[in-house]
Structure formats: C-alpha cells, structure tokens
Amino acid sequence: MEWRTHLLSGIAAGYVVTGGDWRAAVVGGIAGIIPDLDEHKSKFGKIVFPLSFLINKMFGHRTITHSLLFSVLTVLVLYPLTSEWVWLSAGVGLLAHIAGDMLTGQVQFFYPVPKAIGFNVTQKTFHLLDRCTALLLLVYLGREMITNI
User: Which residues cross the membrane (predicted)?
Assistant: First the structure.
C-alpha cells in the first residue's frame, strides 16, 4: 500500500484499540508508516535515508521491518517507557501496515523465516485495493469525527 493508506490504517487502528483516543490515533498513524523504514525510496525512507538505505541493503524490503518480530520488539522497547495507550497503539499501527502490505503483496511476517506470505496482485489491482482501502478508512474516520463532535 501507499504511505497515505498506511497512515490512515495506523490512525484507525490506534483509535479503535484505545476506544477512541485521538492521541493514540496519532501514535498509530506514525507507527503505520514506520515499517517502510526498510525502503529508501519510500516517503518515510527518504526522511531517514542513510538508515533506510542500510536496512534495505542488509535485509531487503518487506522483511525484518514487516515482521511480527519487529512489531513485538518495538512494543517491548516501548512498554516500560510509555503508557499503555502508546505501546498498544504503536503495536497495532505497525500490524496495520503489515496487514495492508499482505493485501497488496507479500511480506516475511515470520522473519527470519524466509517464507513470504500475502497476495500477489497486479499493479492495477494494487492501486484499486489501495484507493478502496483509503476511501473506506476515510469514511470510517470521518464518521467517527462527526459522531464525537
């Protein structure tokens, strides 16, 4: 998926898992783009270019940062340092990103096991799935904003 859709999915995940906390939605949104740290050509990867380039060369794309291992380690690092809503929303934001990439491609979710899981889709299907997912997430979040005014 594209970065905007990952951001939206992370926002929605953080919001839902905390029962409607918008601070958690922000944390989830940020976490939702972090797995693309492994792609130096991605929007986020360009921001942290030296690091993203090294991770990409060492591990490749959609491997370690798109894994359950990465998600669990991130939560374990955040757990003693932050409130529950922070580590929880960060964890689901990361998982939302990974799930989105499984919908539009394959990831090594059980890294370091080299088996990739997910759907192989054409470029046209990728764009269709990405846009439909983004639209559904926008509708959901918009509805939540209107409901909670």
Answer: 59-79
Give domain limits for the chain. Answer: 3-147
- DSSP string for 4-49: HHHHHHHHHHHHHHTTS-HHHHHHHHHHHHGGGGG-TTSHHHHHTH
Three-state DSSP state, 107 = strand
**Residue 117: pLDDT above 90?**
yes
Indicate whether 148 pLDDT > 80. Answer: no
Structural tokens at position 120? 């192989």
Cα torsion 8, 14, 18, 21: sign: negative
Q: Say if residue 4's pLDDT is above 70.
A: yes
C-alpha to C-alpha distances, 61 to 37, 54, 77, 102, nearest whole angstrom? 9, 11, 23, 13
User: Which residues contact residue 8 at a Cβ distance below 8 angstroms, ignoring those fewer than 6 apart?
Assistant: 29, 32, 133, 134, 137, 138, 141
